[in-house]
Specification:
single chain; 165 residues; alpha/beta; four-stranded parallel beta sheet; 7 helices; globular
């Protein structure tokens, strides 16, 4: 039986002075913590989805992923700075300390904030929205656990990020 462990987010957000879109996840999965970068599990569809939406090849290395995001005006981070979690299970998250969104929002012209999944949305609304007052749009999770959403359906929902100018 797996037990709760306390983890601190150990890698930086990705953004620059041209980031118009902020995509927030919950907290890095076990694979992402091992790889020290976002959406590191090979079954997570995040990178393939963004590649499909932008009609580009999916980036593979961390430098390629960072360049890809910045080229498209996308900032990427997680809602949680520290929590207790069992493995990679978002449902198990407890004792949350949220990231300070001003790290990005005070330095990038973010026009829209998107949550990668219901749990990221819920955590943002509970821990971030009360202090910053900026709305967030909930998008379906790119996690392989979200089997109800095949790639075509994900792409249809996520295409709204392309309209942010």
């Amino acid at each position: 039986m797996q037990t709760y462990e306390t983890f601190t987010h150990t890698f930086d957000p990705v953004f620059d002075a041209q980031s118009r879109i902020l995509i927030l996840g919950t907290f890095p999965s076990v694979k992402s913590r091992e790889n020290q970068f976002y959406y590191g599990h090979p079954q997570n569809r995040f990178w393939k989805l963004l590649a499909r939406l932008t009609d580009e090849p999916a980036p593979t290395s961390v430098p390629e992923k960072k360049a890809f995001l910045l080229r498209h005006g996308i900032a990427l981070w997680d809602v949680i700075a520290e929590c207790e979690i069992i493995g990679s299970s978002d449902r198990s998250i407890r004792n949350v300390r949220a990231n300070d969104m001003s790290v990005i929002l005070d330095h990038a012209p973010v026009r829209e904030i998107y949550a990668n999944g219901a749990k990221a949305y819920e955590l943002y609304m509970k821990y971030c929205y009360p202090t910053i007052g900026r709305g967030i749009t909930k998008l379906p999770s790119t996690s392989p656990a979200n089997a109800a959403y095949q790639m075509n359906r994900l792409a249809e929902c996520w295409k709204c990020i392309l309209s942010v100018s």
